[in-house]
C-alpha cells in the first residue's frame, strides 16, 4: 500500500472540498452562489496591508523568524489578550502558528499519546476529530443537542469521561452552530475539568464576532485554576479578515507552548514573516475595522435568519456569534424525498446552483451549514433559490 494507515483514514475537509467544487463549477461558467467557506468577504483592512507592504519593501520580511514567532508579535498577542480578556500572560506562554488550524494540530501532537481521548461536542468544527486522530488519539463525541442550544452539560461530559480523557474542546461561539456558552455553563465545565485534571482547549477564534447583545466569556477568565488548565486557540483570520495570511496562536502552559514551538521548528520553521508584521499591526493598531465588520455580519444575520427559518421543514436556532446558519433540514428533506443530506446538498448545487456544506462533516447529518460571510445580495438570492428548489421537489 502506497499510503500510510493515517493518510488512508484521513477525511479531507468537507468545507474546503465544497468550496473547491463551487469554484470549479463557477470557472466552468455556471452561476454558482457559494455559501461554503468560513471566510469573511472583506479585504484585510488598509493599515494591516500597509504594515506588510512596508515590511516587504524594507526587506525586514526577507528572513526566517524565531519558531515561536517574532518577539514583537508574541508581545502583541500578550497585549491583545490583556485588552480583550483582562488576563496577563508571559510571552513564553504564547506561540504564533500557521493559522489557528496548525496551532491546534501542533497542540494535539504536543499533548496526545496513543489512545488518549479528547472529548468533542457534536456538531463540531470539521478538523478537530481528524487532527486528534492524526495524533493517534481517540475523539470521543458528546451530543450537543439543538434542544439544549447545541451545548453540552457537565453531566454529559462526566458520562463520557474515562481514565484516558486528556482534553475537552470548547468552541464558543461555535462553528457551525453559532451558539455561545454562558458564564455559568463555562464555570461548571471549567471546574469539572480542573477537578479531573483535563485540559480545556478553548477555541476562541470567533470571540469577537458576537451579535445582538450576546456576550463572549473566555473560559480562561473564570478562575485561576481554570486558566492554568486552559489552552487558548485564537488568531487573526476571522476578526481581521485575514484568512489568507495564516497567523494563529496558542496561549497557555509554558511547557506545552515550548513543545508546540519545537514541533513548529521541525514542521514549518516559522509562519510567514510578512504575515507576522501584518498581524502585529492587526493586534495592536486601530481596532475600528473589527467593529465595522462585526456590524455587517450582524445585519446580515438579522436579515437572513427569518428568511431561512421560514423555509418549509426547516428548524433553525438563531445563532449568537460566528458567521454561520446551521439549519436542521430533516423535515425539508422528508418533504422533498431525500434521506441523505449529502445528496440533498449535491442536488442543491447542481440544480439550484447554491453551494452549502453538508452537516455530515460536522457530525450532524440532518443539517446544512450556510456561511453568511458573503454579501447580502448573494445571500438573499441564495435563499430564494433554495425556496424555489424546495417548492419544485415537494
Ligand atoms: N477554529 C475554528 C472553529 C474555525 O472555524 C477555524 C477556521 O475555519 C479555525 C479554527 C482555523 O482558523 P485559521 O487556521 O484560519 O486561523
UniProtKB/TrEMBL annotation:
GO-annotated biological processes: amino acid metabolic process
Xref: PROSITE patterns: AA_TRANSFER_CLASS_1
InterPro entries for this protein: Aminotransferase_I/II_large, AspAT/PAT-like, NHTrfase_class1_PyrdxlP-BS, PyrdxlP-dep_Trfase, PyrdxlP-dep_Trfase_major, PyrdxlP-dep_Trfase_small
Gene Ontology MF: a single term: pyridoxal phosphate binding
Domain Aminotransferase class I/classII large: 31-386
Needed cofactors: pyridoxal 5'-phosphate
Superkingdom of the organism of origin: Bacteria
Keywords on record: Aminotransferase, Pyridoxal phosphate, Transferase
Enzyme Commission code(s) on record: 2.6.1.-
Tagged with keyword Transferase: yes
Family statement drawn from the similarity comment of this UniProt entry: Belongs to the class-I pyridoxal-phosphate-dependent aminotransferase family.
Listed name of the protein: Aminotransferase
Protein source organism: Vagococcus allomyrinae
Organismal lineage: Bacteria, Bacillati, Bacillota, Bacilli, Lactobacillales
Amino acid at each position: 500500500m502506497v499510503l500510510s494507515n493515517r493518510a488512508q483514514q484521513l477525511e479531507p475537509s468537507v468545507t474546503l472540498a465544497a468550496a473547491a467544487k463551487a469554484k470549479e463549477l463557477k470557472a466552468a461558467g455556471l452561476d454558482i452562489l457559494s455559501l461554503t467557506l468560513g471566510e469573511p468577504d472583506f479585504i484585510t483592512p488598509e493599515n494591516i496591508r500597509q504594515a506588510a507592504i512596508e515590511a516587504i519593501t524594507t526587506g525586514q520580511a526577507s528572513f526566517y523568524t524565531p519558531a515561536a514567532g517574532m518577539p514583537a508579535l508574541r508581545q502583541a498577542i500578550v497585549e491583545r489578550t490583556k485588552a480583550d480578556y483582562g488576563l496577563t500572560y508571559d510571552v513564553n506562554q504564547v506561540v504564533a502558528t500557521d493559522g489557528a488550524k496548525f496551532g491546534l494540530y501542533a497542540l494535539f501532537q504536543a499533548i496526545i499519546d496513543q489512545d488518549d481521548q479528547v472529548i468533542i461536542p457534536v456538531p463540531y468544527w470539521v478538523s478537530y476529530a481528524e487532527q486528534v486522530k492524526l495524533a493517534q488519539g481517540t475523539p470521543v463525541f458528546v451530543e450537543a443537542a439543538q434542544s439544549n442550544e447545541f451545548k453540552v452539560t457537565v453531566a454529559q461530559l462526566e458520562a463520557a469521561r474515562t481514565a484516558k480523557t486528556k482534553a475537552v474542546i470548547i468552541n464558543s461561539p461555535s462553528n457551525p452552530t453559532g451558539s455561545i456558552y454562558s458564564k455559568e455553563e463555562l464555570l461548571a465545565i471549567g471546574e469539572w475539568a480542573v477537578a479531573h485534571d483535563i485540559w480545556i482547549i478553548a477555541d476562541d477564534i470567533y470571540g469577537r464576532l458576537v451579535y445582538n447583545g450576546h456576550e463572549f466569556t473566555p473560559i480562561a477568565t473564570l478562575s485561576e485554576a481554570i486558566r492554568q488548565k486552559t489552552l487558548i486557540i485564537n488568531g487573526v483570520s476571522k476578526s481581521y479578515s485575514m484568512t489568507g495570511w495564516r497567523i494563529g496562536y496558542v496561549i497557555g502552559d509554558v511547557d506545552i507552548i515550548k513543545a508546540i514551538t519545537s514541533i513548529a521548528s521541525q514542521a514549518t520553521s516559522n509562519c510567514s514573516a510578512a504575515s507576522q508584521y501584518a498581524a502585529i499591526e492587526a493586534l495592536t493598531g486601530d481596532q475600528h475595522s473589527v467593529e465595522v465588520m462585526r456590524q455587517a455580519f450582524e445585519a446580515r444575520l438579522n436579515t437572513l435568519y427569518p428568511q431561512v427559518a421560514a423555509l418549509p421543514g426547516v428548524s433553525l436556532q438563531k445563532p449568537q456569534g460566528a458567521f454561520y446558519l446551521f439549519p436542521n433540514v430533516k423535515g425539508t428533506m422528508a418533504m422533498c424525498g431525500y434521506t441523505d443530506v449529502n445528496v440533498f446538498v449535491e442536488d442543491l448545487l447542481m440544480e439550484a446552483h447554491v453551494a452549502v456544506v453538508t452537516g455530515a462533516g460536522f457530525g450532524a447529518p440532518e443539517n446544512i451549514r450556510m456561511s453568511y460571510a458573503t454579501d447580502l445580495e448573494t445571500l438573499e438570492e441564495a435563499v430564494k433559490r433554495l425556496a424555489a428548489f424546495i417548492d419544485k421537489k415537494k
